[in-house]
Amino acid sequence: AGAAAAAKVKTPAKQFTPTALVTTVWSLSVMGGAALRSNTFAALWSELCAHGDQQGAAAAAAVGGGVAYDGGVVPGEQITFGPWRGKHLNQINQAALSVDAVGGAAALGLSSGALPAELAAAAESAWLAQRRPPVVSWYQRDVAAILSYMGEKHEEEAVCGGYRVDLLIPQPVGIEQSLKAAVGAGVVLEVDGPSHFARNDTASPLGQTRLKHRHLRHMGFSVMSVPVADWEYLESSEDKVDYLRKGMEHAAGAGADTA
Predict the structure, then answer these.
(1) Local structure of residue 35 (DSSP, 8 states)
(2) Within 13 A of 118's CA, how many CA atoms are on the CB side?
(3) Phi-psi region of 200 (alpha: psi -120 to 50; beta: other; left: phi over 0)
(4) Which of 11, 115, 152, 180 falls 20 to 30 Å from 188 in CA-CA distance?
(5) pLDDT tens readout for residues 47-97
(6) DSSP conformation letters of 94-141
């Protein structure tokens, strides 16, 4: 039955345009869980790999990492691989990260295996070469000020594996000693406004936000979300200190549970 179901979605997968193919693979990656293990994802992933093999030789020269551009590095949107560039290469990289985060292609039973090396390199190069100007809200500055008050050394607008994060605390000092080893690469604090949550359920992060957090945890970071809706109701500095300390400890503990 499984083989028949897989065969049923294989032919429709070949009818996707290159951009629709990438967008759909990425969307299933955002959903995660059962979506990544579906026959649909397997068929689309196989087609993506086939496209990558076809474009490999011709596009190898377009892989950007060290190519000069205006005296610097090629911006992500200028890196191309066959029909894909910028946004779609970023989506391919995020899909590949999602596959890696659950154990790789073999763990998902993807017969086509990992992405072709040339496509994976182009996608990673475009991802790491993104040039997005930081946007710092008043709430983020307030959280940073409280971290300074707590004596927590931190970096604002840090870049972690291609993701720009609001605040990174490499070695938190104010959490329980037993949890410090579980912090991993550091604690990431994301100050999340309303645009990060569902309109009809402000406690439910949107898929892209969940995807980012999953990838950061896979990279070894502990991740704490600081919803603006929570932060604006904390009245005193002591309340904010207590909120952040408990949140960082919970994030570190969650990392220990999934390690």
Answers:
(1) G
(2) 19
(3) alpha
(4) 115
(5) 999 999 888 655 454 444 433 323 345 555 678 888 998 899 999 999 999
(6) HHHHHHHHTT-HHHHT-TT-SPPHHHHHHHHHHHHT--------HHHH
* For residue 204, pLDDT beyond 90: no
Contacts (Cβ under 8 Å, ≥6 apart) of 144? 154, 156, 167
Segment 10-38, tens digit of pLDDT: 568 889 999 999 999 999 999 999 999 99
| 3-class DSSP state of 203 | strand
Band of residue 44 on the pLDDT scale cut at 50, 70, 90: very high
**Residues 6 or more apart in contact with residue 103 via CB below 8 angstroms:** none
CA dist., res. 59 & res. 123, Å (int): 12
Phi, psi values for residue 9, rounded to 5°: -95, -10
The angle at the Cα of 118, spanning 113 to 121, to the nearest 5 degrees, equals 95
- Check if the beta carbon of residue 18 is closer than 8 Å to that of residue 91: no
φ/ψ of residue 102, rounded to 5:
-105, 20
